[in-house]
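ok trying this again, last paste got cut off
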Amino acid sequence: MLHTRATPAQRRRALRERLATGRLLTMPGALNPLSARLIQDAGFEAAYLSGAVLAADLGLPDIGLTTATEVAARAQQTTRVTDLPVLVDADTGFGEPLNAARTVQLMEDVGLAGLHLEDQVNPKRCGHLDGKTVVAREEMCRRVRAAADARRDPDFLLMARTDARAAEGLAAAVDRAKAYVDAGADAVFPEALAGEAEFEAFRAAVDVPLLANMTEFGKSPLLDARTLQDLGYDIALYPVTLLRLAMGAVEDGLRTLAADGTQQALLPRMQTRSRLYELLGYEDYAAFDTAVFDFTLPPNT
């Protein structure tokens, strides 16, 4: 009730221990705090906060317009309501290496289990758009070293994302990943790999936990969990899936409402009031104040 029961330290340790099992961790992206609670309720073991989702939620394109404080605020709202470890997209660290260092401490303070930093130039763009530009390898290594040095909790996961596959080729992306690990990264996120063979080659070359980004309508194939497990990947990420599902349903609902003049036909597709109240834990609050939950809902509403 009100707050998660798990401490940040417990969630960071849980993520580390889960990654050490060798079993694929499927990680949906939350579109808001309530959906993070639903991710937990559905039995998933971790959740993700996508920079693209936050930007879209603010009505902005994913081109580096959101700020560190906006991301941290959404992260704090999310970690408050779920016991799951949450990984966040920290873009390029929001500036120079010193900004990346501050970003790490800011994200530690809001209860996250880890973050990833990428090697695009600042301002960045969505990882599955054309025309991306990456910084020099040594510049990204400075970002990673600054972040690693600023980290206070050694269990806070520091992941490096490389967008070099599109800009410089697979071999360069692998070389960069190795350099980022040497600079202090605990895990690597190779963005926009072009096919299963590239996922396999990356796994063979890089000996730290790897994340596979299974975003829809992008440059990478949508590999299923069994395939990713067999390839040796540690995290399967679904960063924008829930946003796309929700926005598709909203668009369909608006068309129906405009055409019919009533939402009656939409009722079977809606989450019921009872389910929402169950998810929010209304009855738990009644333990503190009976006036909060002093009503009875009809069945199936």
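PB: full thing came through this time. The first strand starts at residue 25 and ends at 28.
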